[in-house]
Amino acid sequence: MSAPRDRLRIAVQKSGRLAETSLDLLRRAGLSFRASRDRLFLFGDNLPIDVLLVRDDDIPGLLREGSCELGMVGRNVLDEQSLATPGVVFPKVVSTLGFGRCHLAIAVPQEMPWGSPADLEGLRIATSYPALLAAWLAREGVAAEVVTLNGSVEIAPRLGKADVICDLVSTGATLQANQLREVATVLDSEAVLARTPRALSPLLAELAERLQARIDGALSGAQVRLLMLQAPRSALADITRLLPSRQAPSVMSLDGQPDQISVQALCHRSLDWSHLEALRQVGARGLMVMAVDQVLA
Ligand code: PRP
Ligand code: ZN
């Protein structure tokens, strides 16, 4: 038995669609790192939190066996592996991260006619997501042959290995380059923060919660803007009604001018020029909008 670790580990994709944004989010959560020589490991400088750079498909397994406590991974990868190994306790999704949106889709050769999923009956479908595909086929009541491939799924029809494919689509460029068209969605996916199903030591549990709160805070910071303005007190009801905000604003009297107020409100990021113009119409002035980097509820 090795000694229990005293540094938290979070796994992120080494290269691929999620890699860049995952590391960026960790930086926005206030972490800084030094890279190891082999570039497989980033050593946390300012907190006892290290980053493992791995293949996305390896992240659910690393979480399950407890080699890392947290991981940023596509929901598609997590769902595929948990469906493929029923009865095994799986990592829990603790946050959705709002990036890496894509979907797992059925795509057919450009010239193939398409009416409904029933058209797949008896065909060979190439995919790297056999469990998700099989579950979808069962739900649709279609009997088709699932051909499992580890990569380059999009060229399977041209190679004669399959008739159609089931693959992730993000921009659609890969399908287009391979003269395929998307006809049905099997799963919508995005990046999520997943946590090991194993019990953590008090130290690692505390670090995990701290990092989760910081990640949530960095994400919600991107969702809000801080609005400041001044106005006659009599305009407060109108101002509150116009704010794109669910929280009550903070209201302060101006020094020596009890009928004048200063208002601060955390607004939805949809706050724009037309809101400001409408607020000015009802008496607000000195309007200022600021970006919010960090939020700790
Ligand atoms: C997916 C999929 C396609 C590509 C589609 O791979 O297998 O190759 O992305 O993206 P597009 O619609 O923008 O062209 P992914 O990046 O998830 O890599 P992996 O399957 O090798 O992990
Ligand atoms: Zn992958």
From TrEMBL:
**Entry-linked InterPro entries:** ATP-PRT_HisG_long, ATP_PRibTrfase_cat, ATP_PRibTrfase_CS, ATP_PRibTrfase_HisG, HisG_C, N-reg_PII-like_a/b, N-reg_PII/ATP_PRibTrfase_C
Taxonomic classification, please?
A: Bacteria, Pseudomonadati, Pseudomonadota, Gammaproteobacteria, Lysobacterales
Location(s) in or outside the cell: Cytoplasm
Ranges of residues in domain ATP phosphoribosyltransferase catalytic: 55-212
Among its keywords, does the record have Transcription?
Answer: no
So what EC number does this one have? Answer: 2.4.2.17
What's the protein called, per UniProt?
A: ATP phosphoribosyltransferase
Q: Which domain of life, per UniProt? A: Bacteria
Which parts of the chain span the membrane according to its record?
none
Query: Main subcellular localization, coarse class?
Result: cytoplasm
Leader sequence range is: none
Keywords for this entry? Amino-acid biosynthesis, ATP-binding, Cytoplasm, Glycosyltransferase, Histidine biosynthesis, Magnesium, Metal-binding, Nucleotide-binding, Transferase
Instruction: Describe the task this protein carries out.
Output: Catalyzes the condensation of ATP and 5-phosphoribose 1-diphosphate to form N'-(5'-phosphoribosyl)-ATP (PR-ATP). Has a crucial role in the pathway because the rate of histidine biosynthesis seems to be controlled primarily by regulation of HisG enzymatic activity.
Query: Which Gene Ontology BP terms does the record give?
Result: L-histidine biosynthetic process
Q: Which GO terms describe its cellular component?
A: cytoplasm
The gene it comes from is: hisG
For whether the record's keyword set contains Protein transport, the answer is no
Can you state which reaction this protein catalyses?
Answer: 1-(5-phospho-beta-D-ribosyl)-ATP + diphosphate = 5-phospho-alpha-D-ribose 1-diphosphate + ATP
NCBIfam families per the UniProt record, alphabetical: hisG, HisG_C-term
Name of the top EC class for this enzyme: transferase
Activity control summary: Feedback inhibited by histidine.
Annotated Histidine biosynthesis HisG C-terminal domain ranges read: 225-293
Q: Which family does it belong to?
A: Belongs to the ATP phosphoribosyltransferase family. Long subfamily.
The cofactors required by this protein are: Mg(2+)
